[in-house]
Amino acid sequence: MKMTPPQILVSGFAIIIFIGGFLLSLPYSTHSGLSTPILDALFTATSAVCVTGLVVVDTGTYYNLFGQIVILVLIQVGGLGFMTMATLVALALKKRISLKDRLILQEALNQSSMEGIVRLIKKVITYSLAIQLTAMVIFTVRWSFDMPFSQAMYYGCFHAISFFNNAGFDIFGPISGEFTSLTSYADDPIINLTSMLLIIFGGIGFIVISDMLGFRTRRKLSLHSKVVLSMSGFLIVFGAIVILIFEFTNDKTLGSLDSLGKIWAALFQSVTPRTAGANTLDIAGLRQATQFFLVILMFIGASPGSTGGGIKTTTFTILIGAMIAMIRGKQDVVLFRFRLAQDRIFKALTLTLFAMLLVLSTTMILTTTEDKDFLKILFEVTSAFGTVGLSMGLTPELSDIGKIMIMLMMFLGRLGPVTFAYSLGPRSEKELYRHPEGKITIG
Fold first, then answer.
1. Exposed (0-12), middle (13-18) or buried (19+): which is 350, by Cβ within 10 Å?
2. Whole-structure pTM value
3. CA distances from 294 to 4, 104, 134, 361, 398 (A)
4. pLDDT tens series, the chain, 443 aa
5. Alpha-carbon dihedral of residues 429, 433, 438, 443, nearest 10 degrees?
């Protein structure tokens, strides 16, 4: 049977998850030398491949060096995409990239055409390695003041890869306690700034990075890059202001920090819902208004062609543009003096509605299987769908059904619900006729 590009993507990610789950279930992967229950191992593998960061066991204290390296490889493959990694191997071996491979890469990178797709892959790999290597050096130098140099180098490598790929995995458990992430560095400017830049670069997408690097010669940005950069910047600044207002007097979060520390922490918590998953504040200690606000940011997520999930910043921008156009009585949605095609608007509406139905239906199911607060469950489900990895502490307490549901949400969030839907069947052919127009009352 001939498989379509979406079907190959879904199958490829599933195979990698099962291989990773098998390796993580082995006794050679844990500090205790005991086998990991297969469901827990598959959960961790799914979280790594889908670059989410939700974990049922603490990565640093539970897994040994072998297990952590397996997780790191899964994060890199999942973040860049297995087809990108396969293309890297093919290019290294000087093999020809077939038309079918280009079609799959086009689907994986969410591109509208195959033109220049191999050049884009080369840029993706180059930029990724350069950014991660730079961040690794900075992390290593900073952490060498807190730990032996060899350990600082390993920590620098692990977290540079994890944060750039928006995975959110951390190994600070043996140092600061299980599931603590970067809470020990809430007011550290070097760790905060480096981590945030990694998350932002990983979340805006490789197309935008390439566009920005070529700005010096072309002197202009594409519409896609303008939308991504403007909306990402707005969400980060607006999010930081909202978090600062809500949490300013909360002794469990910002209240215990000085003025500069409050700003750093608010900015970091605004950046991390771009699907990163690392945190410098205790998420469970946030006020409910802040937690719900983070749910909204996580649902929006990162940008197309990036390592992140969510409905994407471009989709959110199109929805806002359509709403403004409707209120103003305009027929066209115009962004930066460009009119958007109707199919872009329909796709944005379809993706958003599909995502909302997934999140709400999964939340409804988990409120039955898990005896927990509604907001706690909604937060976890949205975090899984947006491949964010932020948690209010529910993940380690999930039932087996709960784990399976969250795994499915991470998988759908990484691939995109529309891609997954396309994989279940061939795309319909263009209709040769149109039905007569009808009218219904709205509002």
1. middle
2. 0.88
3. 36, 33, 29, 19, 21
4. 566 666 777 788 889 999 999 999 999 999 999 999 999 999 999 999 998 999 999 999 999 999 999 999 999 888 876 556 555 555 555 566 666 566 655 555 555 555 566 676 777 788 888 999 999 999 999 999 999 999 999 999 999 999 998 898 999 999 988 998 999 999 899 999 999 999 999 888 777 888 888 877 777 888 989 999 999 999 999 999 999 999 999 999 999 899 999 999 999 999 999 888 899 999 999 999 999 999 999 999 988 877 778 899 999 999 999 999 999 989 899 999 899 988 889 889 988 999 999 999 999 999 999 989 999 999 999 999 999 999 998 999 999 999 999 999 999 888 776 565 555 555 555 666 777 877 776 66
5. 20
Closest alpha carbon to 178 in 378, 393, 330: 393
Query: And the tokens for 376?
Result: 């706690």
Q: How many residues in the chain?
A: 443
Angle between helix 374-385 and helix 288-300 axes, rounded to 10 deg: 20
| Residue among 239, 266, 252, 309 nearest 54 (CA) | 309
